[in-house]
Amino acid sequence: MLNLVLAASLNQLWSMMNGIQIGSHMTLLGISFPANTNVFMVFFVQIANFDLLPTDIVYPWFFTLPESVTHSANFATTGYESIYVAENLGTIFVMMHFYLLAYIFAGVFYILGKKWQVCAKVSAKLNAALFWNGLLRLFMEAYLEFSLAVILNLWYIEFDHENGAVLYQSICTLLYAIILFGLPVFVVKFYKRNLDKLDETEFKEKYGSVYEGLRLNERDEDENEIRENSLFYPAFFLMRRLIFSVIAIFMESLIVFQLAVLFACTITSIIYLIWFQPFESKFANRMEVLNDITTLLLLYLLMTFTPWVDDSELRFKLGYVFIGVMSTNIATHFFFLAKDTYR
Q1: How far, in Å, CA of 269 to CA of 105, rounded?
Q2: What is d(CA 122, CA 177) in angstroms, rounded to the nearest whole number?
């Protein structure tokens, strides 16, 4: 399985991760899930959130946070038992600090490179690796987890605590909030302003991860329009996850509103994907449509977990249907990953 994942196309891996991200976080909504579904979903939340490191063991070596309040029972069940950004981001929080250290080293080698040629070569390699594709890809793929953790900590933020770790969490949260709310604006403004540079090798090496795989290169009279239509995908990708985080955190009691917003976002995405075909390959377009159809089916099943259906036995049985729909999506992605890897 590990060999399959390592050998697979990154775009296909991202598509699979995107396919389970929103679905696996639906337990955060103001709905009481059947027990069988909860067990299944908690496992996939960790995968969708890239939370692979045992941070609960690592963190005590560096800082100790006080006992935290829990935002809600659904958040606690899904794995968000804390309000602190470090505990909720987990592996991503560690990766952010590794990036920070790498940027410090890059700055040091850049300065030393003015005197020593070997340092200049190291600086050039670090710059090529760090600016900016890797970091943009991290923010894009982890944006849902990032938005949930940051907004949650913002809601309960405190600065007058005697514990220095709490103060550090608050400072990190404010810095991350700038990135969180600035990234969708950056994607829209920056890439629209640089439509003519999207094909340039140097531009791709620095900023291409945001639009990798999108249909941008058709040469006709409406080329810029095609590029703008395709670039709607990463912008909507981010906004959809930000909207999900806001309604999950602040509108837990408004079940009908939560469902209505998610239905609207999912249907909008399906219409956009079918109408504009933003990806270069037909296969990628079809897989993204599959992901959204899966999300749509899961939303319909969510309605049966609400108080509108008071038969607990029926809800438990439908929980297996929910698991089956999500598992089918994952199995489909793995099938094509294997096919692509071993053909």
Answers
A1: 41
A2: 32
Which token pair is 108? 């040091």
Q: What are the φ and ψ backbone dihedral angles of 279, each rounded to 5 degrees?
A: -90, 150
Residue 225 in 3-state DSSP?
helix
Express each pLDDT in 163-197 by its tens digit.
778 888 888 899 999 999 999 999 999 998 998 88
Which of 115, 40, 122 lies closest to 325 in space, CA to CA?
Answer: 40
Based on the fold, state whether residues 222 and 97 are members of the same structural domain: yes
Q: Tell me whether residue 248 is in a domain.
A: no
Rounded to 5°, the CA angle 302-270-235 comes to 100
Task: Find tokens 């929980």 and name the residue.
Answer: 319
Q: What is the pLDDT of residues 21-49, one digit of tens each?
A: 888 888 899 888 888 888 777 777 766 66
- Tens of pLDDT along 271-284? 999 999 999 888 88
Residues 175 and 293 in one domain: no
Residues 111, 225 share a domain: yes
**Among 67, 243, 85, 241, CA closest to 174:** 85
Query: At residue 24, what is the residue type?
Result: S
- Provide the residue range defining the domain that includes 97: 82-232
Same domain, 205 and 116: yes
Do 341 and 31 form a contact (C-beta atoms < 8 A)?
no
Burial of 310 (0-12, 13-18, 19+ CB in 10 A): exposed
Same domain, 325 and 268: yes
Report the interhelical angle of 143-155 vs 164-193 (nearest 10°).
130
Could you report the per-residue pLDDT of 71-95, keeping only the tens digit for each?
888 888 888 888 888 888 888 888 8
- Looking at the fold, whether 100 and 135 belong to one and the same domain comes out as yes
CB crowding 104-136: b at 16 or more within 10 Å, else e: eebeebbeebeeeeebeebbeebeeeeeebebb
Shared-domain flag, residues 305 and 225? no
